[in-house]
């Protein structure tokens, strides 16, 4: 008798449901778009729908669809209009209270900043009528360009062949050309026994750097690297007359083919 009472209690506290596996309701879409990758039941007010994602649709931008069982069809719900977004609908979630909302996300929202590509996720939220209300970009940072002062300190010693010296000048200008639309400003110094400021940051801004670099002659003497670094610090990086920005990040690129000829009296770390 006690066992029967316990069984009756268990039945009264449980709910049941049925899944019809014999008469499924099919919704069709392009399999190449991964239609059906994610699906959710969505109920709001009098709407009962199924939300289906196709993360490879729309040329891999991704899209989501709303499907109704009564009509047996799916219609396009949303596709991001930003070409930087890919695989939209790879994840979805539904919240039922206090009011029904749908969230659909993309793991790939790329944006450029100062010549570099950054990747973030982005999610779109929909209200109870499945209209977009906002988007969320977690950990997204607006592009802020930090100014950089970069000096090429290149070897002009006698051990450097004339052809290699010319190649170094070409190498320098190739880098300058590649990064011309960035926040980097350039200067150049040739070093040997003595030192020559080839062009300053101000020369670069004024558009005369290329001419001065082309006209620079090969010194062909010793390799006083440590003194050359000290010269560069004093005359370019720490000299506002050169066009240097005291707040800029400083970068030094040394191009040489051998060991220094001079002694490191200032304890400069190379």
From TrEMBL:
Q: Which SUPFAM superfamilies match?
A: vWA-like
In alphabetical order, the GO MF annotations are: integrin binding
InterPro entries hit by this protein: Integrin_alpha_N, VWF_A, vWFA_dom_sf
**Is Iron included in the keywords of this UniProt record?**
no
Pfam families from the entry? Answer: VWA
Indicate the segments forming the VWFA domain, all copies: 149-270
Point out the signal peptide segment.
Answer: 1-16
Keywords, A to Z, come to: Signal
UniProt xrefs under Gene3D superfamilies: Integrin alpha, N-terminal
One GO biological process term is: cell-cell adhesion
| GO CC terms | external side of plasma membrane; integrin complex
Answer whether the UniProt record assigns the keyword Signal to this protein.
yes
Q: What is this protein called?
A: VWFA domain-containing protein
Species of origin reads Pangasianodon hypophthalmus (Striped catfish)
């Amino acid at each position: 008798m006690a066992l029967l009472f316990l069984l009756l209690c268990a039945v009264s506290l449980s709910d049941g449901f049925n899944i019809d596996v014999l008469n499924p309701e099919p919704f069709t879409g392009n399999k190449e778009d991964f239609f059906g990758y994610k699906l959710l039941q969505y109920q709001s007010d009098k709407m009962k729908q199924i939300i289906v994602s196709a993360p490879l649709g729309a040329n891999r931008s991704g899209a989501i669809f709303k499907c109704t069982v009564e009509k047996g069809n799916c219609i396009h719900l949303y596709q991001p209009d930003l070409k930087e977004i890919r695989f939209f609908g790879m994840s979805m979630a539904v919240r039922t209270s206090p009011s029904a909302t749908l969230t659909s996300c993309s793991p790939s929202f790329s944006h450029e900043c100062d010549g570099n590509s950054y990747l973030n996720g982005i999610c779109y939220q929909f209200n109870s009528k499945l209209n977009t209300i906002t988007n969320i970009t977690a950990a997204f940072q607006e592009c802020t360009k930090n100014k950089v002062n970069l000096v090429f300190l290149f070897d002009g010693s006698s051990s450097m062949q004339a052809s290699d010296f010319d190649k170094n000048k070409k190498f320098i200008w190739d880098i300058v050309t590649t990064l011309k639309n960035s926040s980097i400003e350039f200067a150049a110094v040739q070093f040997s026994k003595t030192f020559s400021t080839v062009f300053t940051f101000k020369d670069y801004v004024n558009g005369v750097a290329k001419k001065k670099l082309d006209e620079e002659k090969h010194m062909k003497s010793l390799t006083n690297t440590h003194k050359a670094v000290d010269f560069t610090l004093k005359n370019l990086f720490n000299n506002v007359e050169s066009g240097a920005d005291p707040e800029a990040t400083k970068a030094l690129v040394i191009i040489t083919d051998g060991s220094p000829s001079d002694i490191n009296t200032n304890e400069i770390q190379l």
